[in-house]
């Protein structure tokens, strides 16, 4: 599927504001791919599709999680988490994406996980720092992202965990695993 066709299908699946966000994530992801010697094409595709399932029906999402034997822990959460693994599934089955790197980057863009690839980190951080994002610390996140993907992941994950905890929201276990992975790996670099 050509980029324009993909964008049109994505545009029809979400409100205009979310589509503008998607374009910002794509722009940021491609810039980061250049900086970190990753495939710009893969970064573009993963970014375009990363939020495709954001407005997917909750009941259909539950059914897919069960039918496709996705992590059953997802069922304890909601679409804020589900849209990533559901999006990876739809990227494969509706868009014909078979590249596991692209599918994993979509799958982990909300929670993170241990041992993330460069593309996984690029999509996670492009989503976190795209030009439309405006929250305390986003400028610092952008600066750190330009210098080190791993340090930026630690920064973003620590802020995300802190934010969710301050709202007494549940935190997906993979997010803690990702945080610990980056905290330990950065600590090792220091010694």
From TrEMBL:
Catalytic activity: P(1),P(4)-bis(5'-adenosyl) tetraphosphate + H2O = 2 ADP + 2 H(+)
SMART domains (alphabetical): HDc (SM00471)
Pfam family, one: HD
Superkingdom, natural source: Bacteria
Domain HD intervals: 18-132
Enzyme kind, highest EC tier: hydrolase
Protein name as catalogued: bis(5'-nucleosyl)-tetraphosphatase (symmetrical)
Organism annotation: Listeria fleischmannii FSL S10-1203
């Amino acid at each position: 599927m050509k980029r324009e066709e993909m964008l049109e299908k994505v545009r029809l699946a979400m409100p205009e504001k979310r589509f503008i966000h998607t374009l910002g994530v794509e722009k940021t992801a491609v810039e980061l791919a250049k900086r970190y010697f990753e495939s710009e094409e893969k970064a573009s595709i993963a970014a375009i599709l990363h939020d495709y399932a954001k407005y997917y029906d909750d009941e259909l999402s539950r059914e897919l999680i069960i039918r496709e034997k996705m992590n059953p822990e997802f069922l304890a959460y909601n679409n804020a988490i589900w849209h990533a693994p559901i999006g990876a599934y739809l990227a494969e089955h509706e868009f014909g994406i078979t590249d596991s790197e692209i599918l994993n980057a979509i799958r982990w863009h909300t929670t993170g996980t241990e041992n993330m690839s460069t593309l996984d980190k690029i999509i996670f951080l492009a989503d976190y720092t795209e030009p439309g994002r405006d929250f305390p610390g986003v400028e610092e996140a952008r600066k750190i992202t330009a210098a080190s993907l791993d340090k930026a992941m630690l920064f973003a994950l620590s802020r995300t965990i802190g934010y969710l905890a301050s709202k007494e929201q549940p935190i997906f276990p993979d997010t803690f695993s990702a945080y610990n992975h980056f905290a330990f790996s950065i600590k090792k670099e220091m010694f």
